[in-house]
Each structure stands twice: as structure tokens, then as C-alpha cells.
Specification:
Elements: E1 5-9, H1 15-24, E2 28-32, H2 36-55, H3 61-70, E3 71-74, H4 77-81, E4 86-89, H5 95-108, E5 114-117, H6 125-128, E6 137-141, E7 151-155, H7 162-174, E8 178-182, H8 191-207, H9 213-224, H10 230-237, H11 239-253, H12 262-270
Parallel strand pairs: 1-2, 1-4, 2-3, 4-5, 5-6, 7-8
Antiparallel strand pairs: 6-7
Bound molecules: 3-hydroxybutanoyl-coenzyme A (3HC).
Length: 287
């Protein structure tokens, strides 16, 4: 199967950079979002990021021009997805919202199109059954910031056709990523399961008053060699995401241990969601 046109649904934290990765790789990309502000912000990002890469000597002017020409932002889902060969969903981490979207995508998209979800935790078999093409629905999970992080997890659930996994791996490679294939579905895949264990311990130590978040971050950076500590990383990936992931898991398991930690709930309610709101655990100058 030849992929030329990619639709990215969701222009938020992940979607806007996934769309740019695809445009830089030469795909024709349509990025859509129900929130016009997110769409505008994503377009503004593309318009500043590409010239900055040229100024830094990381991209030729021609490559930047071509990538920008490959990328369209549109509020209409139908316009964005109706001729797509490959769709990457990057909307809110909520199962019902994803199921509604995939049912609609199934109606809109050409029969050959693969529908991939960038969900952080939810396995695609929880979504695929709303479509008439479950064999073409899989997980394709990028990491934040998607323009920088090399890994992509491709999850081969029991319903996923070999060709779907193979095409998804090829798309990831063409975007310059290193795909890893999970042979079975597991909630949270590889990376977020490991990260969740680190975050749970860091939040426990903080909530218990054992150390400040700055010191816990320093410990992880300076002793374990991580590029950033768990609190700074939560600010990057979004405290709203940490909240939704915890709530989604809790709804599913009913286990109180899966609920978001007190400080995550507090920050979520206050709208202190990290870099995207200008304040999370740390303060950021510009939103
Ligand atoms: N968007 C795009 N590019 C960015 C960026 C951003 N938000 N932040 C940094 N960069 C680029 C810079 O332009 C620079 O590129 P260049 O070297 O080609 O010029 C490069 O990244 C390095 O940037 P800096 O020198 O400014 O900063 P650092 O060296 O501190 O790197 C970092 C920043 C890449 C974010 C690094 O701190 C890092 O790797 N942090 C860990 C990130 C991580 O763990 N991500 C996974 C999170 S888990 C996840 O995403 C799962 C999901 O489901 C939530």
C-alpha cells in the first residue's frame, strides 16, 4: 500500500508536531482540530519552526518551503480525512471521544485507509470495533516533543493485519523515526508503563513531603542521567494528560491506586497544566 496523504486529527501538544514530521517527510498532510485556537496555534508554530530550522542551518530553504507546502490546516474533519491514505488520531485521552471519532472516520475515509491512534495508553482493540475495518486500526505512539523524539511504538493487536503494522512501521521510518513493534497489546505499551512507574514514585515522594519537586527532578537528572526529571517532563507532556490518563485508568479498573495523585488533581483543577498554560510545577515565561 502506497501512503501519500496523511490526516492528523488533533492539533494539540502532539498532533501539531506529528503533522510537521509527516510534512517534512514529504507526505501531503491535512491537520484538523475542532478547536480553532489550537489549529491557529499549530499553524503559527509551523510558520515559525520551519524558518528557525533554516536559520539554525538544520534545514534547507527548499526543504522548509516544501514541508510548508505539504501542510494544510483545516477545521473540517471531512475535508481533512476524505482522501487520506493514513490517519493519525491525536485527540484527548478519552476512550469515548476516540470511539466516536473512529466511527466517524470509518464513514469518511477511503476503504483502504489505515486509522492509527497516537493514544498514550489505550490499546486500539478498545476502539477498532466501532469501525468496519478493525484490521486497519492500530496504535502508532509518538513521544513529546514529536519532532525530536526518535521512538514510535507500533502495537500489533490481535485484530491488526500484518500489512497494517508493516505500513505503519514504514510510515514511521519515512518520518525518520525508529519504530518498535509490540507483538501483543498491553495498556500503556512499553515507554509509558516504565514512565508511569517513575512518575508514581516521584509523586508519592512529593505528596508525602519527602522532598521538593525540584530536588526529585535533580536526583533523576543528576544521578540517573535522564534529560529532565519527572516533574519537568509532566510539565512538558501536560498535567491535564496525566490527570486524564489516571482518571481513564481508574474508570476502567476501579482501583483507587490508579487515581491521579493529589497534586496532579490540584494542578488540573487550577488549570496549571504545564508549559501549555505557562505554569505547571514550574513557571514558563510565554505560553
Ligand atoms: N519542540 C520541538 N523541538 C524542540 C522542543 C520542542 N518543544 N524542545 C527542544 N527542541 C529541539 C531543539 O530545537 C533542539 O534541536 P536541535 O538540536 O536540532 O537544534 C533540540 O530539541 C535540543 O533542544 P534544547 O537544546 O533546547 O534542549 P535540551 O537539550 O534540553 O532538549 C528535550 C530538550 C529534547 C525536550 C530534552 O530535554 C528531552 O529529551 N527531554 C525528555 C523528553 C521525553 O522524555 N519525552 C518523552 C515523554 S513521554 C511521552 O511523550 C509519552 C506521551 O504519551 C505523553
Amino acid at each position: 500500500m502506497n501512503v501519500e496523504k496523511i490526516c492528523v486529527v488533533g492539533a494539540g501538544n502532539m498532533g501539531h508536531q506529528i503533522a510537521l514530521c509527516a510534512a517534512l517527510a514529504g507526505y501531503r498532510v491535512r491537520c484538523t482540530d475542532t478547536d480553532p485556537r489550537a489549529l491557529e496555534k499549530a499553524e503559527r508554530f509551523a510558520d515559525t519552526y520551519l524558518p528557525e530550522r533554516v536559520a539554525k542551518g538544520k534545514l534547507t530553504e527548499e526543504a522548509a518551503r516544501q514541508a510548508r507546502a505539504n501542510l494544510t490546516f483545516t477545521p473540517g474533519l471531512e475535508e481533512a480525512a476524505s482522501d487520506a491514505d493514513f490517519v493519525i488520531e491525536a485527540i484527548i485521552e478519552n476512550l469515548e471521544a476516540k470511539r466516536r471519532l473512529f466511527a466517524r472516520l470509518d464513514e469518511i475515509c477511503p476503504a483502504h485507509a489505515i486509522l492509527a491512534t497516537n493514544s498514550s495508553f489505550i490499546v486500539s482493540s478498545r476502539i477498532a470495533d466501532v469501525t468496519r475495518r478493525p484490521e486497519k486500526v492500530c496504535n502508532m505512539h509518538f513521544f513529546n516533543p514529536a519532532l525530536v523524539m526518535k521512538l514510535v511504538e507500533v502495537v500489533k493487536g490481535p485484530h491488526v493485519a500484518d500489512e497494517t503494522a508493516a505500513v505503519t512501521v514504514e510510515v514511521a521510518k519515512r518520518m525518520g523515526k525508529v519504530p518498535v513493534v509490540l507483538k501483543k497489546e498491553i495498556y500503556g505499551f512499553l515507554v509509558n508503563r516504565i514512565l508511569a512507574a517513575i512518575n508514581a514514585e516521584a509523586l508519592y515522594l512529593y505528596d508525602m513531603g519527602i522532598a521538593s519537586y525540584e530536588d526529585i527532578d535533580n536526583a533523576v537528572v543528576l544521578a540517573l542521567g535522564h534529560p529532565m526529571g519527572p516533574f519537568r517532563l509532566m510539565d512538558l507532556t501536560g498535567i491535564d494528560l496525566a490527570y486524564h490518563i489516571g482518571m481513564e485508568r481508574y474508570r476502567e479498573t476501579g482501583n483507587p491506586a490508579d487515581r491521579p495523585s493529589p497534586v496532579v488533581v490540584e494542578k488540573y483543577v487550577r488549570g496549571e497544566w504545564g508549559r501549555k498554560t505557562g505554569k505547571g510545577f514550574y513557571e514558563y515565561g510565554e505560553k
